[in-house]
Amino acid sequence: MIRIFKTNTFYIVLVLLLTQACSPKSNERETEGGLSEDALPSWNNTEIKNRIISYVEGVTNPSLPEYIKPEDRIACFDNDGTLWSEKPIYFQFYFVFDQIKKKSKEHPEWKNQQPYKAILEGDHEALMNTPLPKLLEAIQIALAGDTPEAYKAEVKAWIDTAKHPTKKVRFDQLVYQPMLELLDYLRANDFKTYIVSGGGLDFMRGSLIDVYNIPSEQILGSTLKTEFIETDSGYVIIRQPELDFIDDKDGKPININRVIGKKPVICVGNSDGDLAMLQWTSDQEHKNLEMIIHHTDSVREWAYDRDSKIGHLDKALDQAKADDWVIVSMKEDWKVIYPQGNSK
Amino acid sequence: MIRIFKTNTFYIVLVLLLTQACSPKSNERETEGGLSEDALPSWNNTEIKNRIISYVEGVTNPSLPEYIKPEDRIACFDNDGTLWSEKPIYFQFYFVFDQIKKKSKEHPEWKNQQPYKAILEGDHEALMNTPLPKLLEAIQIALAGDTPEAYKAEVKAWIDTAKHPTKKVRFDQLVYQPMLELLDYLRANDFKTYIVSGGGLDFMRGSLIDVYNIPSEQILGSTLKTEFIETDSGYVIIRQPELDFIDDKDGKPININRVIGKKPVICVGNSDGDLAMLQWTSDQEHKNLEMIIHHTDSVREWAYDRDSKIGHLDKALDQAKADDWVIVSMKEDWKVIYPQGNSK
Fold first, then answer.
1. Tell me, what's the ipTM?
2. Could you tell me which pathway this protein works in (chains A, B) (predicted)?
3. What is this structure's pTM?
4. I want to staple B66 with a disulfide (CB 3.0 to 4.6 A). Which of B1, B51, B287, B288 is the partner?
């Protein structure tokens, strides 16, 4: 519990409750007609794209000294702001607020009780002024009590219908097409891809498995405590109203070490919350690739970094520049942001 | 921390600090000459072997109603007493005691201080009379302070040389040949096999990856807390002298849910510490297989169950009988216990 109150920003900490594919073998794939096919078609042909391809081609070439065996090809991706958008607030919050509204029928007292009152009235100003422990407690009550299976089913029903307040499309349509291509390109080259996010583990497992074509055991996130109990109808796990682990900042390398037990060779993030896992990745014997998704496109997405509470990118941007990490400018390096015709 | 003191036996709790293959497609494989090859050659042709094969053939047959998709074929195995022996005490203890002996040079005071005195003198009687918190604290001090990488390297060096006190072979030669074949048979049928043990996660990752041919991300175990820190030489994770999680009893289904996010369809254990994950496995929509390895062979291995502190099997044996789980008698069902010519 103590770790929560060490983190700096209101938003990053809160996220503890939160969070498509094709398939060529290498970037320039020979097609039947002998023409080459681009595995990263939504990336502009910039230096950034070249660095990614050059890295992957190098470490997968057994005749080169930088060759990495397939079992060590671990690639870890942050989720919010790295694989899908995170503005105006983390998408999981919309789910949480919807849940609190749903449960408010059983809690008439919430109408006059903060922070429920602010959530029910959509009063973001009041929410931001709510003391953190109070807000966390409220959210825990709203999100605990179910089995993980039941909770994930609720998340799934929500993600299949809920729409973003300004973009007016489903939240899962706000994934980044270039990142879907990158995930797929890496998998085609025998990288095992993981999501490592401050978002809630069950939220992500309920909403993102099909979106990113990723199995639940390759998703790491923040967790509530759980209990195993015997009921009249059987044996179940129940989500408890108490935080267990915050998968943010130092928590990211700690969780990667615990769950995977290997250091990633590729690490991608977009905020200071990803700095620790980027630093950890950068310090190893294998050739490694650290990447920052920089939100530079105010027209097609949002533009923000050092001054933003959500996706706060300051120290990590400084270190990325100093250490020559790959900094992806969404405006310059991406042909498209979201999938075209992303409907289901 | 509280969970530790809830567990019943001295040994099971302590284990928090603890802790090969061939490949045919199905049991009766057609060989080139048209003869069939047995995937479980070290299993006697008993009802038990038939039940295992019948289960696997059923759930992997797409034309049968019990068919399970490959991504849901999760098989979880306990380690101590299920995949390798655990007598006279859990093998990790020998490593722990060796470590304490090694570090005792820097701690001359240990000669007169319990429980170090008992450990250094090999006084098992005194050890069993040591209050649990005191013993745990002592072991934590001996095993914390390293990076996971350094600790795993120490474990590896130990497992490659240390010998069992009475069997006079290396500890990793005391794995069960029939279980190596079962692991392999399941993998050949697209099951993802996991170890879920009360043993120490880093201990198992240091010693068992090659023995069971299992990647580190498919090993779940008990953990110490860790910290991520920046040192003069880089960014490292350090094992702290504080317990984080005990992967035993209720902790097993809880950890499976957290790390894998799917309920296993096959679960194998040998003691009451495995009961919760066996119960959880038994309660689901998929056809499932619960298995108990029953230590019945006093000549080739050890014979024990209800009265043993190590591998205490009492409630789980009752439920296995009541619910018709598969109970493997090592004496009746296994042709051999340990691998023949298991040297490296």
1. 0.89
2. Amino-acid biosynthesis; L-serine biosynthesis; L-serine from 3-phospho-D-glycerate: step 3/3
3. 0.89
4. B287
